[in-house]
TrEMBL record, chain A:
PANTHER family: BLR7065 PROTEIN (PTHR43005), INTEGRAL MEMBRANE SUGAR TRANSPORT PROTEIN (PTHR43005:SF2). It is found in: Cell membrane. PROSITE patterns: ABC_TM1. It holds the Pfam family BPD_transp_1. Residues 78-292 form the ABC transmembrane type-1 domain. It comes from the Bacteria. It is a multi-pass membrane protein. Its main location: membrane. This is Sugar ABC transporter permease. The chain crosses the membrane at residues 7-27, 84-103, 115-135, 165-190, 211-233, 271-294. Keywords: Cell membrane, Membrane, Transmembrane, Transmembrane helix, Transport. Belongs to the binding-protein-dependent transport system permease family. GO terms for cellular component: plasma membrane. The lineage of its organism: Bacteria, Pseudomonadati, Pseudomonadota, Betaproteobacteria, Burkholderiales.
UniProtKB/TrEMBL annotation, chain B:
It comes from the Bacteria. Its main location: membrane. The keyword DNA-binding does not apply. This is Sugar ABC transporter permease. It is a multi-pass membrane protein. GO terms for cellular component: plasma membrane.
């Protein structure tokens, strides 16, 4: 009993902080989402029920979008976010796995390569957005210069402005920045694998590709899936990279970008809160579906 | 892992070289750009023909943005965030890692859930809270919202670490008449140093890089943090983007971080893997 009291005493400061910065604001966001609160006077909001969700100008019932849900900004931001998340997580996982396998080999200079791989991860997102924004600049960017010099393209490309390229440019920069994270997590999993299995496979003359598919991949499946879930959750709430690299144009706006635009730029705190909660629900459902499909139980050791 | 064919060796080193080049080149290019001004900016070569520090000097010379002030704001915010989250997490992780009590599993899951939450879900509520507490538009006030992403993982990692400490140590301390406070801060603390360094660094990096809250909760020019500052650097005219200054600012913000990460890479890697795989 004495111990239990001590436990709660030691937990109290952290719990108070968490309730203050997460619990209470979340409850307020819930309330705001059913009001017409404006940014300029938070106390003046009136209860409007489901209006922000299913009303005439609501998120999911907007009659103004004559071309359908997916033509509206909210629909576009949902589609953008999923395109971004799915493609970048797939690429990060594939390339991250490749880099991890490379770093798992013994060769001279491996420590140097591992250090170099960490660099993109250490660079702040805003800085990598600006850096790549400069390298991909439509007139003076070094990437365009190369492409023209090598004869790949005849005309310089406006990577971040042209709607056809902008989202994939964001994906590319995100992949560049996040490969270290994936590679290191996968490498950690690879290094726990028992060596004798590989010895046995080598002695039996099993083809390396077969070893990879039949031994390595099944053995690292769980940590791999956990890493993928983490990245997926992260990618679905993307904001700063898109905001800085493509100025949050409606061609590339993400769900988080939509929320912030409605709340802060347009001052519609109630509507923005409704979008924020919808986004949370969408992410939650996606994560649950993914974990079900991948048959992973997260946080198994929370006893 | 012994003999490898020549072709495999060549492929291995080529892949390694490619990985290094792709990882490092963009930063080197930014570094090179930061030393160029005027028309030299549009020369795509890596080594500038003429090295100038003008971009760096301009950043601190006033006129445009008070970049020095922003740098100071970021240092204060990130340091405070680390100190506050460490103190809260050390105390909490002792309870979670060493004392059995009912509801612990649910509590750990709740903490994990917070770390997965999209930050915009609490944006409007936090906006109101910051105004109510008089923290809106004050750089140090950002420490409060930052706890939402630093606390969950510092608590998780430190709990895992605490759980692994030997029971005998605690028992001996109790025999000597130590209370829990002394056990945590005098007996366990020295053993926790490696875990504290790695989680502290990750918390520092998180706070240093944060953009959404800093952009939303601070509108005063003086109170900005560096990521917001960099995103808002503009030229004298709308047509001219001062890439030289932007890259100089980027280099200043990044170099300490890259240095820290490379210096503590072993610990960061273990922190990352502990925080993510076990979390």
């Amino acid at each position: 009993m004495q111990r239990t009291r001590t436990a709660w005493l030691f937990l109290a400061p952290m719990l108070v902080a968490m309730l203050l910065v997460a619990g209470w604001p979340l409850a307020r966001t819930l309330w705001f989402s059913v009001t017409d609160t404006n940014l300029n006077d938070l106390a003046a909001g009136r209860f409007v029920g489901w209006q922000n969700y299913f009303g005439a100008y609501g998120l999911f019932g907007n009659a103004g979008y004559t071309e359908g849900f997916w033509a509206g900004d909210w629909g576009i931001s949902i589609a953008n976010t999923f395109k971004f998340a799915v493609v970048s997580v797939l690429l990060e996982t594939a390339i991250g796995l490749g880099v991890a396998l490379l770093l798992n080999q013994e060769f001279r200079g491996r420590a140097l390569v591992r250090t170099a791989v960490l660099v993109p991860w250490a660079i702040p997102t805003i800085v990598s957005a600006k850096m790549w924004g400069w390298m991909l600049n439509d007139q003076y960017g070094v990437v365009n210069q190369w492409l023209v010099d090598w004869g790949v393209v005849a005309q310089k490309i406006a990577f971040t402005a042209e709607p056809a390229y902008a989202l994939w440019t964001v994906v590319a920069v995100d992949v560049w920045k996040t490969i270290p994270f994936m590679a290191l997590l996968i490498l950690a999993a690879l290094q726990t694998l028992p060596r004798d299995i590989y010895e046995a496979a080598r002695v039996d003359g099993v083809h390396p590709l077969r070893v990879f598919w039949r031994i390595t991949l099944p053995l690292i499946r769980l940590p791999l899936m956990v890493a993928v879930v983490f990245r997926l959750l992260d990618a679905l709430r993307v904001f700063d990279l898109i905001f800085v690299l493509t100025s949050n144009s409606s061609a590339t706006i993400s769900m988080s970008g939509f929320v912030r635009r409605e709340m802060i730029d347009n001052g519609d705190l109630g509507f923005g809160s409704a979008a924020a909660l919808s986004l949370t629900a969408i992410i939650f459902i996606t994560a649950v579906l993914f974990l079900r499909a991948a048959r992973v139980r997260l946080a198994e050791d929370t006893r | 892992m012994s003999q490898r064919s020549t072709a495999a060796t060549v492929a291995l080193y080529a892949a390694a070289a490619l990985v290094v080049a792709v990882s490092v080149y963009p930063f080197l290019y930014a570094l090179a750009t930061s030393f160029k001004t005027g028309t030299a900016l549009f020369d795509a070569r890596l080594w500038p023909a003429e090295v100038t520090l003008r971009n760096y000097r301009q950043l601190f010379e006033g006129g445009g943005q008070p970049f020095g002030r922003h740098l100071l704001n970021s240092i204060v915010v990130a340091t405070l965030t680390v100190v506050v989250s460490m103190l809260l997490a050390i105390s909490a992780s002792y309870a979670l890692g060493r004392i059995p009590f009912r509801g612990k599993g649910a509590l750990l899951l709740a903490i994990l859930a917070v770390s997965m939450f999209p930050q915009v879900a609490v944006l409007s509520g936090l906006f109101e809270l910051m105004q109510a507490l008089g923290l809106y538009d004050r750089a140090p006030g950002l420490v409060l919202p930052y706890l939402i992403f630093t606390l969950p993982f510092t608590v998780w990692v430190l709990t895992t670490f605490m759980r692994g400490l030997p029971v005998e140590l605690e028992e001996a301390a109790i025999m000597d008449g130590c209370g829990p406070v002394r056990i945590v801060f005098q007996v366990f603390m020295p053993l926790l140093v490696p875990a504290l360094v790695s989680t502290g660094l990750l918390a520092f990096i998180g706070a240093w890089n944060e953009f959404l809250f800093a952009l939303t909760f601070v509108s005063d020019t003086e109170q900005r943090t560096v990521p917001v500052s960099i995103s808002l650097i503009t030229g004298a005219t709308a047509w001219e983007v001062p890439w030289g200054s932007i890259m100089a600012a980027s280099v200043i913000v990044t170099v300490p971080l890259v240095a820290l990460v490379l210096l503590f890479q072993q610990r960061i890697v273990s922190g990352l893997t502990a925080g993510a795989v076990k979390g």
